[in-house]
Amino acid sequence: MRAGYLSTVQAGFFAIALALLAFIFLVLAGMVLYPPFDALVRSLQSEEILFAIGLSLVTSVISTGLCALVAIPVAYSLARGTFPGKRAATILLNVPMALPPLVAGVALLIFFGPSSIGQFLENIGISVVFTPLGIIVALFFVNVPYLIRILRSTFEDINPRFEHVARTLGCSEWRSFRRTTLPLAKRGLFAGLVITWSKCIGEFGAVLILAGATRLKTETLPIALFLNMSTGDIELAIAAAIILIAISIASLLVLEYFAGESRFV
Amino acid sequence: MIVVLEIRNLEKRLGDFALHNISLTIGEGEYFMVLGPTGAGKTVLLETIAGIIKPESGNIFLFGRDITVLPPEERGFSIVYQDFMLFPHLTVFENIAFGLREQRLPFPELRDRVTGISELLGISDLLERAPHTLSGGEQQRAAMARALVMRPRILLLDEPMSALDAASRIRLRQELKRIHRNTGTTVIHITHYFEDLFPLADRLAVMQDGAIVQVGTPEEIFNQPESDFVAHFTGMENIFRGSAVRRGDEVEIDLGPIVLHAVTPLEGDVIAGIRADELILSPEPFDSTARNTFRGTVSEIQANGVFSRVVVDVGVPMCGIITRQSLFRLGLTPGQEITVIFKASAVHVFPA
Hints:
Chain A has 265 residues and is an all-alpha fold. Chain A has helices spanning 2-33, 37-44, 47-80, 86-98, 101-112, 116-123, 132-156, 161-168, 173-184, 186-202, 205-211, 221-230, 234-260. The model of chain A has no long low-confidence stretch (mean pLDDT 91).
């Protein structure tokens, strides 16, 4: 009796899972198939979409690079260091992540706009507000905490004694990090960069507020989607959406592939 | 003896744990062991010697030069941890070559040094393997090769045998002895296994709660333990509390039910320790020059292997060790009357 009861529950759960999968598939496929095919191909080749692809790629790659440059040392010191205020620092670092991106955008807009720091930057010719540079800044601000979090747990999983051994074998502090911890963190670092990059590609709220939504100037893929939806150009909006879906699926596949390969656990 | 390493009044606090006033002198080519229970601070001491942990006060001298603040890479010491810490992203060859690569040694010389040390350790066939494919004993040798190929001034071993099974431990003990003989390297080896000492150690220090409680040769530590902790740790089975009163050349230690005769300068409250193998058991009372003779009843016999433990109640329980042959010959059974005899010099007396 008990076995029969269990298998009924399992069958029920399985049916729910199937229904969910069907729902996800139908929602995405429905959108892709909604516009006439030739109109969609034309949209994908339009100047606006090509510009958005280019701008999204450039800004996301630069932002991801900046995130890595900052996150590696910060994550390492949080993982290894003991210093007063470490807990407080950890909480503060997670705030941009917990913040709704729109709020982060408003805060950034005020910091780089009317504040004295914003005025100073403006005076020396660095203008962040409503420019492509603003896109990079917004992406960095909302995504660097994620990367720090991922890398911190990666570094915490690596035994500090590898570096101790390397030191006794003649490596300086920096060299022992370069030759042991960094290569051992390769998988976590790679996964972190893919996640950061794909989040950069999809980021909307913070970019909208800080960089504005100027057609053919600060128009990333999500912004293109938004602008064309609001003007009723449904084919262009869906073209942008399809590229975003393709990028999401591709990064998921890459992550799956490398997560399966667990050489240094 | 040429002094390689001198440690003077080292202090270090790490959370709840602390090293207290550590002073040690280690001679060139010496095999020096540090013995102590888990949590005594042995690894902290080793990492402080290596330069990985900075002491709060005190000094470390290498051939008379103060190296207290010298970074680990400039000390020329190699360390082998108990979990070996082979770099998992490198082959065994590259693990062993790790330090030589840092020196930018030309490849032919680097290869010769790596193959040379691999032959000494019998791991020449494993050089292209990844560390995780090696057995515990093989990883241990690879880690040892990685340390020795640097020709360290001091080789630091952190419980190198505790991750191995009993048979590998015995093999490795012989191996370590051979390597030490062949290379003449000064070794500081920490362990909590008392049985590692005799085949290996020239001298040793016993550690307890972050402090060194006794330094000497294994024979000195074993035969003249200076505290009941050392006595317990080195396997002294009979330990009693009592009060000592001087009577001429010797003292009488009153344990309550019985009085022991001992030779010691101590008086007042003391702890008396007697090794089980120094008790003589005899079914008949017999005359001997031994100062301590007690009648009692056998309360327990544990036969294990060649030796058997016999506990005799002489007012206090006393544990003796006899061979299985003697056990058979004496025909001992629980409840039997028996005489326990030991010399006054067999009673080791420590301050209580």
